[in-house]
Amino acid sequence: AAKEAGKDTYAVYDAHSETQDGARILLENDLRKSLERRELQLFYQPQVSLFPTRRIGAEALLRWHRGQSEWISPGDFIPLAEETGLILQIGEWVIREACRQGKQWIDAGYEPFIMAVNLSPRQFRQSGLVDLIRSILHETGYPPEYLELEITEGMTLDVESASGKMRQLRDLGVQISIDDFGTGYSSLNYLKRLPISRLKVDRSFVRDIETDLGDRDIVKAIIAMAHNLKITVIAEGVENEDQLAFLEANGCDEIQGYLFGRPVPPDEFERGMTVQGTGGRHS
Ligand code: C2E
Ligand code: MG
Ligand code: MG
Ligand code: MG
């Protein structure tokens, strides 16, 4: 693991900001200790189907409570974790914690749902990834078909090796989705060669969907293309009814966004869940 971690770490010297370097080193040191200090936590954001409207999944999103008070969002530490290789340890914790929590909810009698976990590029390239996920599934008893790994378009540029790895993961029974779709370089031809079950339309296309004709066309095209390939489409970042109406009218299958719920800690997420067989909220 140490070898893997050091593989593509670059020492970056930023001449104009000595203090920034200092802050970065402190951040890195604290991040290194975040696991043993139990400062990492997963929040869960609901994913909802539209036809019919039902909660069908959750995305696990990492949060770091640095020290006593500071709260750091993943956008501010995932890149550093990726650069330093710490992402391998952190990412392993994320997958295990999501599966552990998911199993706990199933055992409590809640209807199983898709648990989506983000993989970073380095994690996806990690040679032991398939074995790691196999052993986490075994260890936690989480049903593989309810685990979804989110990867981004950039990780699949080498279609040959990416699709090989994805197939190995699919053989474990897990699902794979493409996150932030539309921001990369994907073509129809390329998607056809990847064993993916869902496309997540990037938030940037949803944001101005009410006014931006270009974004509207892109989203319509993505939905049509995905449906041709029998891939489910979920739109990210849906915040209001007008965005929802457009997506609904154009056949988008699923929605994730503040309109249906923000990422929340597990206890809060649990309050919105349904008990098996009831089809409605248990109270
Ligand atoms: P992402 O995977 O695209 O996750 C969706 C992000 O959009 C989340 O930000 C979520 O809170 C935010 N979001 C959801 N709905 C809305 C909405 O309606 N409006 C707006 N404005 N934002 C919305 P978050 O939690 O800050 O995560 C940011 C990114 O950090 C994630 O983007 C993902 O790339 C990365 N990340 C988060 N957790 C992990 C993790 O465990 N491992 C790895 N490798 N990356 C992670
Ligand atoms: Mg994601
Ligand atoms: Mg995304
Ligand atoms: Mg992302």
Automatic annotation (TrEMBL):
This is EAL domain-containing protein. The chain holds residues 459 to 741 of 741 of the full protein. Residues 24-277 form the EAL domain.
